[in-house]
């Protein structure tokens, strides 16, 4: 039996660990050829690629620092050459997952913080989406999935202001682009995770984590695989009538 994403090319940014790694593994299990982007750790990206190939899937690692202005261009160039040129510059699925956060009082943040957060969380996502949309509208099918956040809809606590600003931008961009591309066969959706156990989330036993758990109704952090399951659905042909949606996967945080 064929898999839902058989022979589709997927690019997942920031997929050497955390939610991105789980998304890469899941899309590959659904049949996609996956480009695993990393910025700092080729070893970790290799681990993800090895896990996928051992399971019979297809993956390649691509290094690109999305905090630098050249990062998105490097990643875009890799689409043309990936898997021995098998896809001829075609791209089916883009998951903009890479993200960075800083916690602390806004008045103590530096100009460098704005640049880093906005370059990785917003600028790179916009640039990659633009290139992906050009490729996808040519073929008449595509999925752009942006990983937002429960912090992209509300500001439930202090000390997260810049991150919140970037995620509101991500959610707005998702909706805006979905309006422009809807009739082309390319859908643009988001997944907004609630607190999920990764290196980005606060120490599981610390006071911040305890407070965040209380804001969910299930009383726990999510698992990266639970976020990946929602992404796999939005990436699949079955989501064809969903466009401009920021799908909440947050254990009831926003209920
Ligand atoms: N963990 C959570 O609780 C949570 C909640 C809501 C949203 N999110 C979002 O989920 C996404 C994944 O986060 P995560 O929890 O897996 O965290 P993580 O820190 O484990 O992973 C972030 C990923 O982004 C990549 N990244 C960071 N800076 C980069 C750069 N300059 N260039 C390329 N890649 C870069 C990292 O290498 C890593 O792979 C992010 O967009 C994050 O904002 C996470």
From TrEMBL:
InterPro entries assigned: NAD(P)-bd_dom_sf, SDR, SDR_fam
Domain of life the protein comes from: Bacteria
Record-stated family: Belongs to the short-chain dehydrogenases/reductases (SDR) family.
PANTHER family recorded: 3-OXOACYL-(ACYL-CARRIER-PROTEIN) REDUCTASE (PTHR42879), 3-OXOACYL-[ACYL-CARRIER-PROTEIN] REDUCTASE FABG (PTHR42879:SF2)
Name under which the protein is recorded: Short-chain dehydrogenase/reductase SDR
């Amino acid at each position: 039996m064929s898999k839902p994403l058989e022979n589709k090319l997927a690019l997942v940014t920031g997929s050497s660990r955390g939610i991105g790694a789980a998304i890469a593994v899941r899309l590959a299990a659904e049949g996609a050829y996956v480009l695993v982007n990393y910025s700092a750790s080729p070893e970790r990206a290799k681990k993800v690629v090895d896990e996928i190939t051992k399971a019979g899937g297809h993956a390649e690692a691509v290094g690109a620092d999305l905090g630098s202005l050249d990062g998105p261009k490097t990643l875009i160039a890799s689409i043309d050459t990936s898997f021995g040129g098998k896809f001829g510059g075609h791209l089916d699925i883009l998951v903009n997952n890479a993200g960075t956060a800083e916690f602390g009082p806004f008045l103590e943040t530096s100009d460098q913080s704005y640049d880093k957060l906005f370059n990785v969380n917003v600028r790179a996502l916009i640039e990659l989406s633009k290139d992906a949309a050009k490729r996808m509208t040519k073929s008449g099918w595509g999925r752009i999935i942006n990983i937002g956040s429960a912090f992209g809809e509300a500001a439930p606590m202090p000390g997260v202001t810049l991150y919140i600003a970037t995620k509101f931008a991500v959610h707005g961009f998702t909706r805006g682009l979905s309006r422009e591309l809807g009739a082309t066969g390319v859908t643009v959706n988001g997944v907004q995770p609630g607190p999920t156990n990764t290196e980005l989330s606060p120490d599981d036993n610390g006071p911040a984590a305890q407070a965040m758990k209380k804001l969910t109704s299930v009383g726990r952090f999510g698992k990266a695989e639970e976020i990946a399951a929602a992404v796999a659905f939005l990436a699949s042909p079955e989501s064809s009538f969903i466009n401009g949606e920021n799908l909440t996967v947050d254990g009831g945080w926003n209920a």
